[in-house]
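Demo today. Your pick:
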Amino acid sequence: MPQVDRDSLVLYVDVSHCNLRCAMCPRGGLSGLRNTGRGLMSFELFQRIIDKSIEEKAKIVGLIVGNWGEPLLNVDLPKMIGYFKSKYPQSRVMVTSNLNHLENPEELLESGLNTFRISISGMTQNIYSRNHRGGNIERVLANLLTLVEIRNRKNLKVIRFDLHFLEYLYEHHLKEFHHYL
């Protein structure tokens, strides 16, 4: 991990495209919040941003990809992470995801990813789909197990999985979440 000081920067790449309509998200619009902008960053634009940061001698110590969208929908994500890590090899990379979509998991895990944050707000389909409309908790859990198996098989111990459990007032099933862990 590079030395972090007041001149250090974390590059944050927001994603404006998603495969779900979540209750709390401005992308989904279920809560009355609306953000209709959609799109995925091209590898070429990402590359220009990273190259510009190098040209400007930016001290970037981390990359966070995600937030109000699903970064795994971008087929260039592993290539983007790989490019970033080739320019900032000591930096940390975190991807936030709902994990309802997973293509090329080996390529993703081998790209240089350090932390994979998965948002979950229910361990039963009934509760999960109430918060993550269009999502499938069984698919999420199966995709998570696939990622863990690949990480272990390839001995990629630098990758940490962070389950971000979003709790709502009407949820009384946390014991199911702890049981799964």
User: Anything to note?
Assistant: The longest strand covers residues 59-66. The chain has a mean pLDDT of 81. Helices lie at 43-55, 77-87, 105-109, 125-131, 137-153, 174-180.
